[in-house]
UniProtKB/TrEMBL annotation:
<protein>
    <submittedName>
        <fullName>Bola-like protein</fullName>
    </submittedName>
</protein>
<comment type="similarity">
    <text>Belongs to the BolA/IbaG family.</text>
</comment>
<dbReference type="GO" id="GO:0005759">
    <property type="term" value="C:mitochondrial matrix"/>
</dbReference>
<dbReference type="InterPro" id="IPR002634">
    <property type="entry name" value="BolA"/>
</dbReference>
<dbReference type="InterPro" id="IPR036065">
    <property type="entry name" value="BolA-like_sf"/>
</dbReference>
<dbReference type="GO" id="GO:0044572">
    <property type="term" value="P:[4Fe-4S] cluster assembly"/>
</dbReference>
<dbReference type="Pfam" id="PF01722">
    <property type="entry name" value="BolA"/>
</dbReference>
Amino acid sequence: MAQSMTPIEDAIRTKLTEALKPTTLDIQNDSHLHSHHKAMQGVTSKETHFRLTITSPEFAGKMQPARHRMVYALLKDEMAQEGGIHALQLKTRTPEEEQKVAEK
């Protein structure tokens, strides 16, 4: 069986889908935009910077910091590993919040 070319993105998708049951999950790999940064010199991973949009009923009643902590906790292994996630940009919404945005 072939090894995935995007193992970290695959892990993000799997973990967030299983735990948060999102109605929307958009994962953008922005690593190429940051490869020239000093902190990224010598890093060969192409999966270090991600932009995520997540809509989940699991976020109901939680403020943004709590929602972000939920995501960070789910991805702690990917953030801790060498060549893993260096930065996450998160947009977290409930289905109701997403509906309001769509109506505008």
